[in-house]
Structure prediction request, 286 residues.
Amino acid sequence: MRILLTGAFGQLGFALNKVLDKVSYHEIIRTGRSIPFGQKGMVLDIQNKVHLKEVVKSTEPELIINLAAITNVDACEQYPELAREINIAGLQHICDVFDGKIIHLSTDYVFDGESGPYGENDQTCPISVYGKTKLASERILLDNNPDHLVIRGNVLYDYPTLSKASFLNWVVSSLIEDKEINVVEDQINNPTWARSMADVINLCISNDLNGIVHWGDADHVNRFDFAKMIAERFSLNSRLIKPILTKELGQTAPRPLQSGLMTTKIVKMLDVIPPSISDCLEEISI
Ligand SMILES: NC(=O)c1ccc[n+]([C@@H]2O[C@H](COP(=O)([O-])OP(=O)(O)OC[C@H]3O[C@@H](n4cnc5c(N)ncnc54)[C@H](OP(=O)(O)O)[C@@H]3O)[C@@H](O)[C@H]2O)c1
Prediction:
């Protein structure tokens, strides 16, 4: 199948390309706002509908996986118009110019974090601009065609050299530089290795899933404990990690606290087992 990835040079894009590239019957078209040095791909900004239409026409994909988004939660709060232009209007552009199947990535930030982990049928109630834009994009996608698929994830991590969106990179590089870091102990999620998400996206493609599904790895932990696990795995100084409360951080955007995603539905549909954090960390080398 010919698959076009938007935002292909982000954290998940790299992991997904690695997984899909190994499937002999897939042809992957990687697109990004810019192409990192040494990588192959096409320049594509999903805000530019005219160019998007041309790229779709010239490459004739059978499936588009939309990973393009502004993922910096505080930047979304600061620049809500830009967040809407990329996260909502960008997806609308894809729906407007492409007739085939679309898989779109969304987030547990569509929930308020009062009573997670959340199932697919739980009431959404985003508390940040980022969460609101992602929820609006989900609705656009499924109103356009209920056969499309939304996959919600949370706290994706990896050790990418080129993407900025990795918690693991931040923890590792800070500790290597002997820098003390404050990590929140009151935000609970199920952190998910980008490779684990990529494997599940691959299965969603082959099983032609539609609607909304949640994917997250097995362990529900607070961010402070997750940082400690990272330090332990890479033999770094965990005493540099200090617990802090979200309200003490004074971040621009509010964060869901008791969040995370339940995976019962997808586990049943695909017969998959979410991996543990320690198994995933074991497979990552820095
Ligand atoms: N990271 C997480 O914890 C997490 C959790 C749940 C869901 N998700 C979702 O998963 C998807 C992938 O996230 P990620 O972790 O891979 O984040 P990421 O590393 O920030 O990747 C997002 C990519 O989108 C690109 N992009 C931004 N605006 C664009 C535009 N107008 N046109 C084309 N590309 C654009 C970015 O390029 P630039 O580098 O040029 O900005 C970046 O390469 C996103 O939809 C995100 O909302 C992420």
